[in-house]
Input
Amino acid sequence: MANPEHVAKLHEGIDVWNKWRHENPELYPDLCRLNLGGANLCRADLTRASFIDAHLVKTDLRFTYIISAGTSGLRGAQE
Output
């Protein structure tokens, strides 16, 4: 299950999320099993985030930083 604190921060918006990530670079955001279908994550810093078994159908990931992310079992991810 995703970390509720990380999910809540993501729901505050990309600008808030990116600021939080910049202030906490040591964190590994846990977004496992989260349904992000249809979400707009454009330009989000998702560095080292874990998306294990996450649902990303129609999620906007343009210009998103996904360096060293855990992506095992993603559902709906498309290039």
